[in-house]
Specification:
It is a single chain. 44% of the residues lie in helices and 23% in strands. It has twelve helices and twelve strands. The strands form two sheets. Strands 1, 2, 3, 4, 5 and 12 form a six-stranded mixed beta sheet that branches. A hairpin with a 2-residue loop joins strand 2 and strand 3. The longest helix has 29 residues. It has 331 residues and is an alpha/beta fold.
């Protein structure tokens, strides 16, 4: 029997919706929508969600709930990630979201990493892989494999290498940022990922070398769209495409000397992503550099796919593949 489930993920930069049918452990995606709401605006400094940011998210969720009901979906799961974890007043937004009939959950970074790994690994059964989910406030890195009967993920790390976080820390003093500001952003990301690499060495010696680096998130998909000048955006031309380190560094060089308004005009880039795309590109450059990968594979199968699978499993009375139990609301 197919389980029809709607999933909403509220991140630091984007709020995303998926409508999917899950049958026999396979996700059939009916639709996927992403809206830039910038919930995490200034959260790194203030540790508070602003009223304006919360209102943007509430307006977006109101539209999503209409779409969910218009498509006759009865089950919905809602997660909140880095910005909600960092902010001291997240309960105010959670309360507002409950008015829509949702049961929002602020999930730990480790759960976020496992859900994303589960989603990405659907295309790589029985392969040892490293999955990185580069978001606005954090980057989750997971290493493991999706085996025939279980998920084996011996390593999950949530880091503070987020594109909005780095933008606000280092790249917002000048437009375009100075070479010194970019150098500091590189140094910050490199220091984070070098520690991750050291921790991964022993695990890969024990369990096996990762076959490839998979990356999801708005920066990675946007870089593919920029490289191909995709207008309009076409996920089928982005999913499982490869970006080399040389290509990412070349794109960073092009972005670095453009103002935010100039970046917003680039074909293939959402204008609202222009303020954070340079920081995201720096993060992905350092991710590949420090983890010793000359290329990455970009995936559209992300946390929403993992969340759909876990929600469907729990609704049917099965164990959660990631050990975390979602609150699935019935409309």
């Amino acid at each position: 029997m197919a389980i029809h489930v709607a999933c909403i993920d509220i991140g630091t930069v984007t709020v995303r919706l998926s409508l999917a049918s899950v049958q026999d452990g396979v996700v059939h995606l009916d639709s996927k929508v992403s809206t830039i709401c910038n919930l995490g605006e200034n959260v790194d400094k203030s540790r508070l969600l602003s009223q304006q940011a919360c209102e943007r998210v509430e307006d977006c969720v109101a539209r999503y709930m209409k779409e969910i009901r218009d498509n006759s979906f009865k089950l919905v799961c809602c997660t909140m990630t880095s910005a909600a974890r960092d902010a001291e007043n997240s309960s105010l937004l959670i309360g507002a979201l409950r008015e829509f009939g949702l049961e929002p959950q602020v999930i730990p970074g480790e759960v976020e990493g496992r859900l994303t790994f589960l989603g990405v690994a659907q295309d790589f059964h029985s392969q040892r892989i490293i999955v990185a989910d580069n978001g606005g406030g954090s980057t989750e890195i997971a290493y493991g494999a999706l085996l025939q009967n279980s998920l084996s993920v011996p390593f999950v790390r949530s880091t503070e290498a987020g594109c909005r976080r780095l933008t606000e820390k280092f790249l917002s003093r000048a437009d375009p940022p100075t070479a010194e500001d970019r150098s500091q952003a590189h140094g910050f990301a490199a220091s984070i990922f070098s520690v991750v690499e050291k921790d991964l060495v022993g695990l890969q010696e024990k369990f096996g070398q990762a076959a490839r680096l998979l990356v999801c998130g708005g920066t990675a998909t946007s870089l593919v769209a920029l490289e191909k000048s995709l207008v309009p955006y076409d996920s089928s031309r982005v999913h499982l495409q490869t970006l080399s380190l040389d290509t990412v560094d070349r794109l960073e060089g092009q972005l670095a000397f453009l103002t935010c308004s100039e970046r917003a005009c680039l074909p293939g880039l959402q204008p609202k992503r222009a303020p954070v795309i340079l920081a995201g590109t720096i993060i992905l450059s350092e991710l590949m550099e420090q983890l010793n990968f000359s290329a990455m594979t970009v995936s559209e199968s992300d946390l929403l796919i993992g969340l759909s699978l876990v929600s469907a499993a729990v609704v049917q009375g099965f164990n959660s593949p990631v050990g975390w139990i979602p609150n699935v609301a019935e409309l």
